[in-house]
Design a protein that fits this description.
The complex is a heterodimer of chains A (79) and B (245). Chain A is mainly α. Chain A is built from 4 helices and no strands. Chain B has a 7-stranded parallel sheet, with helices on both faces. Classes of the chains: A mainly alpha (79), B alpha/beta (245). Chains A and B meet through helix 2 of A and helix 4 of B.
Amino acid sequence: MSTIEERVKKIIIEQLGVKEEEVKPEASFENDLGADSLDTVELVMALEEEFETEIPDEEAEKIKTVQSAIDYVNNNSDD
Amino acid sequence: MQNFENKVALVTGASRGIGKAIAETLASQGAKVVGTATSDKGAAAISEYLGSKGRGLALDVTDSENLPQIIKDIEKECGSIDILVNNAGITRDNLMMRMKDDEWDAVLNTNLSAVFKVCKTVVRGMMKRRYGRIINISSVVGTTGNPGQVNYCAAKAGLVGFSKAMAKEVAARGITVNCVAPGFIDTDMTKSLNDEQKHAIFDNIPASRLGEPAEIAAAVAFLASDGAAYITGETIHVNGGMAMV
């Protein structure tokens, strides 16, 4: 079983089509990883699916960097 | 004739009139159709005319709280929605000077706000699959205006702007968002017009007749087809020449 961090990073790589080495904790989806705002919405949808959860809009808007995505899942996941 | 085999369509307000014609047309061309009505009786009527090609569903489109779960249940049962037709609409006509807040609110809620809510829910699955057809039923009076209908005209014009903005947001995901704007169509909604109103309208329709619900459904079926993949943010006017825009 991969860690939450590995699973989140894998989704980011798949969704945004970026290389593993680009997915640094502080990397911003829109500023560093070439995502537009809709890509970020889709990324959150993919996270919801992977972790079988629903991320409320007001929380989703705060997920802007690799670390913030990992933190959100860590803080809101049972596994 | 389009081929909608293996496509799932959701048509709101499908118990009669234009919505019924749209549901029947999509079903006859191979789609699995879920048609909504506000009452259980209406939903039963839809199930009856669709037969094995789909079913009716009692749904209050303004119920934003329960909408996501209801859509999720439909998709679990019937498959992901490929074609969404927002057709449900009401009128509460009154002169602007006499219009009550609740008449304004009811029409804006059902005819415009509900479309936003249904689209927001349904588009998630379309985004994932990189495919979707959204067709919003506007009206000629959204373009021309009509006395006694400031609420209805505002909502129907609002749908055109909504569709254009949404079309730009989701175009890169293979989803198109268009409007069909009917003129005066032979339905219960236009049957309530008095003779004087009808004559005044006929004088302005070069085709000098009312349109048939099936003639609206044909335009919807075209926009829902694979052949219309490059048309988005557009409004097709189906009005017998009454307004050429």
